């Protein structure tokens, strides 16, 4: 007789949502994580009153009302709006691509009509039909000038490949608009949980047994029948001991510094778009909460993090799945194996080899709740 109804592998967002709902539905759950903390990659750690996003900046944005209402049950969200700056050779530009960017790049451009005409002229000069790669996609969207300054260097650093060898889909995430609006996201709702993401996930996991620093394989080697069902949010290839080969990822390296100054860059995110600068962005974490501590008072110090893109090799932290044809084909084979599992269900970014925004990860967890527990969220 298994001790638990569900073993949930991974205490990140997917695992926490599922564990919360399963517990609420009367199931006995055990959540494990190999790390020494909950919250997966949205983990925040408090340093000098600042909630530091330890695995990269996470800004919650969604147009899904049910997801927004759900997260608000576990945290109070502030009204942070992401408006990053792009730094290129001593100049700064607003992101995403909008009228502020166009007017700075082309000083003669002031109105949307002028911007559209300028971009149309640049696109015509390229003679591109249906874009077949990221370079063509970017050129067709914003023209040569912006591509050279704000896309090419950043993208090639981020992905370690030429823009012509990358799928057009990567850049489709980025808004391009003809209004003076610096909001990076087009979504209806946006904000940061006051007090950090870790607290939000801890709330989801209230009343759930959690064991940290536990390896799934070691646990089930000792207790193979520990749970009736398993929700596995780890890497799908690792589950199968990489027997069909390894799925590839793009990794990141973070270097953080505590600085004895109140404000380092005046904004949460500065992208560094030149190829020659080795990092892609600097995050100044306190700006996610307007520079204020838990008591509402200004904080005297600041923490910044430089984000360096990195090649991934087995054993490194996986961040971005490399969803090219070769890896997708390998994933499909693992997914076939997974479909034959009776009592193990694969979920989340690592389990599904998908680059999820947080809201999409939660929406996918809701689907899992529906199929597993019959509960509609
Ligand atoms: N991108 C760019 N210039 C920028 C920011 C982004 O060319 O200043 C491109 C780049 O190819 C990147 C993609 O847009 O991989 C998606 O960017 P996003 O900010 O959505 O990436 P994330 O924050 O999820 O890493």
UniProtKB/TrEMBL annotation:
Gene3D superfamilies: NAD(P)-binding Rossmann-like Domain
UDP-galactopyranose mutase C-terminal domain segment(s): 149-355
InterPro entries: UDP-GALP_mutase (IPR004379), UDP-GalPyranose_mutase_C (IPR015899)
Gene Ontology CC entries for this record: cytosol
Keywords for the protein's UniProt record, in alphabetical order: FAD, Flavoprotein, Isomerase
Domain of life according to the entry: Bacteria
Pfam families given in the database record: GLF, NAD_binding_8
Family classification: Belongs to the UDP-galactopyranose/dTDP-fucopyranose mutase family.
PANTHER family: UDP-GALACTOPYRANOSE MUTASE (PTHR21197)
Name listed for the protein in its UniProt record: UDP-galactopyranose mutase
Taxon lineage: Bacteria, Bacillati, Actinomycetota, Coriobacteriia, Eggerthellales
Gene name for this UniProt entry: glf
